[in-house]
Design goal:
Layout lengths: L9 H10 L10 H13 L6 H15 L6 H17 L4 H12 L20 H5 L10 H18 L4 H9 L6 H14 L5
Helix pairs in contact: 1-3, 2-4, 3-4, 4-5, 4-7, 5-9, 7-8, 8-9
Length: 193
């Protein structure tokens, strides 16, 4: 653990200790520190390591309700951040959508047949000619979901309300987009400054 501490700026370590209640008062959880370092070393979506550390730490607290082990939270957050960023989406918006769609259950299957953490309908694999894609695979599901939402945002000229309603299949209604946006603003909004 002593080797990891010099890698984290003192201000970041202090912030991490303040944000994550699961950590002991005297010393941070070495597994979470290692997970954060590993995620930041492998993930190309964080242009600024400091901002990446702060984002992972600040999102880890709220996510603990659904994902208990710290290393699994950091892993999931890193993957969500990577796919959201690649699609040009705010990762917090994607977190809110996931909360509404599946409560962070990677293996969720809806009564309508939507699959995975972002609840992707199986017809998408046929539509793009990739019927062998496993929608319960986390990375595949995140890639589909983020790409679909980004496409709907483009189709709807940037209107989050209309894009989210399209994503959910409730075009013309606002209950779903309002719910996603409420969670985004209440729980998943992040500001680096």
């Amino acid at each position: 653990m002593r080797r990891l501490l010099p890698l984290l700026p003192t201000a970041v370590l202090t912030l991490l200790l303040a944000i994550l209640p699961a950590w002991a008062e005297d010393s941070p959880d070495p597994l979470l520190l290692a997970s954060l370092e590993s995620a930041l070393a492998q993930d190309g979506s964080f242009e600024d390591r400091y901002v990446g550390q702060v984002w992972l730490a600040s999102m880890s607290g709220p996510l603990e309700r659904w994902v208990k082990p710290a290393d699994q939270r950091v892993n999931l957050l890193s993957r969500i951040h990577r796919e959201a960023t690649a699609a040009g989406l705010d990762p917090g918006l994607v977190l809110a959508l996931i909360q509404v769609e599946s409560n962070f259950d990677q293996y969720a299957i809806s009564s309508a047949g939507a699959r995975g953490i972002m609840q992707i309908m199986p017809f998408w694999t046929r539509e793009i000619g990739r019927e062998d894609d496993n929608l319960l695979d986390l990375d595949t599901n995140l890639r589909y979901g983020c790409t679909i939402l980004a496409h709907y945002l483009e189709v709807e000229d940037g209107s989050l309300i209309r894009a989210l309603a399209r994503y959910n299949g409730s075009r013309g209604q606002t209950w779903y987009p309002e719910r996603v946006l409420r969670y985004w603003h209440q729980r998943w909004r992040f500001s680096a400054g």
